[in-house]
Specification:
By secondary structure, this protein is of the alpha/beta class. The chain has 18 helices and 16 strands.
């Protein structure tokens, strides 16, 4: 079986993305996750370029890696100076990594216009730098920047750069599509020609400016590359790099290439989410393999077919990458959707039960009013319980009032919510402040209920989204509010719709509280029955 080594550059190339910024501590945590995933090479950063990367390399020395080898990245020596006296090369050695990646220009245009040195001097810089680091006992990966553009403009010089690195002792030659403009047929033909001219193992490093990074990586492997560079979630400058979350399963599942163990691939979705979290970025729901929607089914006919045989609408088993199958409920839903969700919620429901029809009718009517349950499964489970006549009201609202007061031009508005409700006939009247009207209302609601249901102190509002449904109505537009809540163990979504944003928020907040209390009660009953 052919083997391919995985080279992750999330911590260097990935952080060049416009929205991404990682602290030294973040980078250490990601290294540990990538090591656990089984990545062969992890590029930690550029120790000669900034204090944060220097701090990272200092911290990572205290971390033992089980499966990965850490890589320091930097330029070849400067023009007119000996390699041994170059500050950048010294910083690479001081990073104390087993592996060093050296980048240099292979496109003659860049050598002349960007570096402003002669073509001959650039070759000397490559040779001296690689040779120096090899003599210091390092594994050296030569990063041939702009290689494919350089090859198309001046094939002879681009190949000379590779041969020079090879002669100096480079362990791998990584061919870079730095501008991300190459097409798969070009990658394939160029790589095959390169193989005829050099004996050193080849790597591939692609960018995604033409949405071809993953395709170009795969075809490069088919043409002979044995090392693939990429980033988690495809982070990178401009349009990003090859997305390892797609590259890895494509290699393993589609091409049957040994690049990661089956056990480690189960962690792929988890690692994707972990990196998103530390980068403080919303996950891409529709990301292949690891996205929330990658194995989500909405149409009733699709759901019915998938229940009989998942291969009908899934190209692979979602669980092999740590994902799961999801069935969505909407006005396109059929009985199959409702039955699947009931099973998922551990609700016993017969397909001939009249409540199934009632749920579908309610669902289609509510979606026509602007509700959306695809991201609000908590509200949908409550809707299902209601249709079955099993909903329990844990409290009754007697009234609430929200005050927003501005006390001066430069002062922040003051927000306060007052609420009156009853639980089993016992009235509770309380008030609370907040950073906004919804936050104040949320605080007041939970403050009033925690006396009766102490477990609500665990609940946090994790996300709050507002969508204007009919923009032409101006300030009187219909508003949909989606709330995501969590209690440290589980997360759930709820929804509310109204032409009053406070009312829409209230509906979603109430559903969130009702859902939490309902699940706790159901779990307690189930435990008692099992015990």
């Amino acid at each position: 079986m052919k083997k391919v080594k995985l080279y992750d550059t999330t911590l260097r190339d990935g952080t060049q993305a416009e929205e991404v910024s990682l602290s030294a501590e973040d980078k250490v945590k990601i290294v540990e996750k990538l090591d656990d995933l089984g990545i062969h090479y992890i590029e930690g950063g550029y120790p000669g370029s900034n204090p944060r990367d220097r701090e990272f390399f200092k911290r990572i020395k205290n971390i033992s890696l089980a499966q990965s080898r850490l890589v320091a990245f930097g330029n070849t020596r400067r023009a007119g100076i000996k390699a041994a006296k170059d500050a950048n090369l010294r910083s690479l050695l001081n990073a104390d990594t087993e592996v060093i990646t050296l980048v240099s220009k292979t496109w003659d245009l860049h050598v002349r216009d960007a570096l402003r040195v002669s073509l001959k001097e650039n070759l000397e810089m490559i040779y001296d730098s690689v040779e120096y680091l090899k003599k210091e006992g390092r594994e050296v990966i030569y990063d041939a920047e702009h290689f494919f553009d350089g090859f198309k403009r001046n094939k002879e010089y681009a190949l000379k750069c590779l041969k020079t690195a090879q002669e100096a002792g480079a362990d791998c030659l990584a061919l870079c599509d730095t501008n991300g403009g190459a097409m798969p047929d070009e990658i394939k033909s160029i790589l095959r020609e390169v193989k005829k001219n050099v004996k050193t193992p080849l790597g591939i490093h692609t960018h995604n400016d033409c949405e071809m990074a993953v395709a170009n990586t795969i075809i490069a492997v088919q043409a002979g590359a044995v090392q693939v560079h990429g980033t988690i979630n495809g982070y990178g400058e401009r349009c990003g790099n090859a997305n390892l979350c797609s590259v890895i399963p494509n290699l393993k599942l589609k091409l049957k290439i040994d690049c990661i163990t089956e056990e480690n691939m189960l962690k792929l979705k988890e690692v994707s989410g972990f990196v998103n979290e530390l980068a403080n970025l919303n996950p891409w729901s529709h990301q292949p393999y690891v996205g929330k929607s990658a194995f989500a089914h909405k149409g009733g006919l699709h759901v019915s077919a998938v229940q009989r045989n998942p291969e009908t609408y899934e190209h692979t088993d979602p669980e092999v990458v740590g994902n799961r199958r999801r069935v969505l409920v909407s006005d396109l839903s059929g009985k199959s959707n409702v039955m699947f969700k009931a099973s998922e919620f551990k609700i016993k429901l017969n397909s001939k039960d009249p409540s199934v029809g009632r749920v579908l009718e309610d669902l289609k009517e509510l979606e026509n009013q602007g509700y959306q349950f695809e991201g609000a499964e908590g509200s949908f489970e409550l809707l299902l319980k209601r249709a079955m006549g099993e909903e329990r009201k844990f409290f009754d609202l007697m009234g609430f009032r929200v005050i927003v007061e501005k006390r001066g031009e430069k002062k922040e508005p003051y927000c306060e919510a007052t609420i009156m409700l009853s639980v089993d006939g016992v009235a509770e009247h309380t008030a609370s402040e907040g950073h906004g009207p919804v936050n104040a209302l949320d605080n007041a609601l939970r403050k009033a209920l925690e006396k009766f249901y102490p477990q609500l102190s665990q609940v946090e509002l994790l996300d709050y989204k507002v969508r204007i449904l009919n923009q032409d109505a101006g300030t009187g537009a219909l508003t949909r509010v989606l709330i995501e809540s969590g209690d440290g163990k589980n997360r759930w979504g709820t929804v509310g719709v109204s032409d009053n944003i406070i009312e829409a928020s209230w509906q979603a907040l109430v559903d969130s509280i009702q859902y939490k209390l309902m699940k706790d009660e159901d779990n307690a009953k189930r435990s008692a029955e099992e015990g």
